[in-house]
Amino acid sequence: LLFPVSNLCGKCRPRDTDLLQPSLNFLYCSLHQTTPSSQQRAVAVLLSNVSLLELLQKVLECTWLQSSPSEPAHLSSEDALLCSAWLLVASLLLYQHRYNTEVHQTLSLDLTEVMNAVTFRKKKPILLLVSIMQFLRTVLRQNFSSSLLVIVVQNTAQGATQPQPSSLQDAALHPLTTQQVFSFVVSLQNLLVHKDSLLSQAVVVCLETLVEYLYVKNQDVALHVASQPWHRFLLFTLLSGVQKSFLQPEVLRLMTLFLRYQSSNIISQKEISQVLQEAAEANLAELPEATSRALHLFLCQV
């Protein structure tokens, strides 16, 4: 089925949402709900379809070409298609890297446009924000070195006038710049304020991956990002008004991140003790899987 469905997608236009959206979902599910041996073959089939990849390129670019909706919570058919496309491309990046599959057509994306797409000023549905962050997490984990993806970095006139220390930092963080990193962190922080569980978990996981990337490239920048005082306000914003709030998966993973990078100005012994107390009083067998996994990571880090 992958052959006819992927060929069908390649003959569509980005506006053919009624046909494309379920088709891309089928391709996505085919990649994830199969055996490893079949998965490798499925990736090879999709990456050999040049028309499909060209179509995905056009669909992704619609993310910043379309006007912002008046109701960001509403998921239109165009937004649903974008969600499917971003998730499918993130999966293709992941599995192409895992199996070292031959690439017949590369995707080209402007890094600035992608990172700006998740800024809080752009009114986008939560599912679309989550899908784009899943893509960003994948490229960060691959150090922007995928043979399937070409990252376009726009050269600005400001770059030549920056002081030398900043230029050295930018060189270490390439293709990101220091300014992009800090702007992106602010965007992630602002998205956390929405207090939507799905969005919060996606933001925290993306922040984890970003700091891991930065730590390899430039430890000073990574530690600076992890110890931003604003994080403490965000932590308590997530905690407000929720019973047993420390056992939310996004809260646990956020606190684990601060512990890992020793951000003692963000999380204190008091908060650690509160988590341990709540965990001791909870029925661990009844905790959701995401919470159990996050609690395990937190305790290992402690």
UniProtKB/TrEMBL annotation:
<dbReference type="InterPro" id="IPR052133">
    <property type="entry name" value="Immune_Signaling-Apoptosis_Reg"/>
</dbReference>
<dbReference type="GO" id="GO:0007127">
    <property type="term" value="P:meiosis I"/>
</dbReference>
<protein>
    <submittedName>
        <fullName>MEI1 protein</fullName>
    </submittedName>
</protein>
